[in-house]
Design brief:
The protein is of the alpha+beta class. It has 2 domains: about 35 residues, no CATH class; about 130 residues, 2-Layer Sandwich (Alpha-D-Glucose-1,6-Bisphosphate, Chain A, domain 4), CATH 3.30.530. Strands 1, 2, 3, 4, 5, 6 and 7 form a 7-stranded antiparallel β-sheet that branches. Strand 5 and strand 6 form a beta hairpin. It is globular. The protein starts with a helix and ends in a 7-residue tail after the last helix. About 5% of the residues have low confidence.
Length: about 200
């Protein structure tokens, strides 16, 4: 048997190839579980549901703005502050969901922000987690050999009319879509009540 085939079989056995969803009972070790987005969380009161959501999201992001779900307002929304992604040198941070994301954030500047919607339904609360990922848009490579004293014509002039007013927070960042790996981690913690840290 070829050496590469043996290595692939060993890696598959160590990391696990199974996917969810699973029925009642324990999930097989090494299995990958995928949660629906939004998920249904059974809770007794709007305050309990909202506190649970805030407690979990606060483990990953700083909360910028929140409109809690209540008896009067059946839809709640939570927005977070954009956060530069955790690198391989920051193992205590969990906003980069796996090794690939940590490596990517180590090699280039990435950031994420989350929007969470909580809706009251008949048997509990639907929680939708959306995490947006962005790449920093730099004018030139950091180790470029070009002389910085020369005038450059490759970008338009940015003029700040009112420096005291609030500046756009997305300027200088390229949107990369959604970070489903981090969404799944947050959803898993919302469902199980514990943080799962992958290798």
């Amino acid at each position: 048997m070829d050496r590469l085939a043996i290595i692939a079989l060993v890696l598959a056995a160590l990391t696990g190839c199974a996917t969810g969803p699973y029925g009642p009972g324990p999930v097989p070790p090494g299995a990958i579980v995928y949660y629906d987005n939004p998920i249904l969380i059974p809770a007794g009161s709007p305050e309990q549901a909202w506190e649970h959501v805030v407690d979990v999201v606060d483990d990953y992001f700083e909360i910028a703005h929140e409109v809690p779900v209540s008896q009067m307002d059946e839809v709640g929304r939570l927005d977070t502050v954009p956060l530069v992604g955790a690198t391989l040198l920051e193992p205590w941070r969990h906003d980069s969901a796996n090794f690939h994301e940590k490596l990517e954030s180590t090699l280039q500047t990435m950031r994420r922000k989350a929007v969470v919607h909580v809706s009251h339904v008949q048997h509990g609360y639907l929680v939708e987690v959306i995490v947006y990922k962005q790449l920093e848009d730099v004018a030139r490579p950091m180790q470029s050999t070009g002389d910085t004293s020369l005038l450059r014509y490759d970008s338009s002039l940015t003029r700040v009319e009112n420096p005291i007013a609030e500046q756009p927070i997305d300027e200088g960042w390229i949107p990369l879509g959604r970070d489903t790996a981090l969404e799944q981690r947050i959803l898993g913690q919302l469902m199980t009540g514990r943080q799962v840290i992958p290798l």
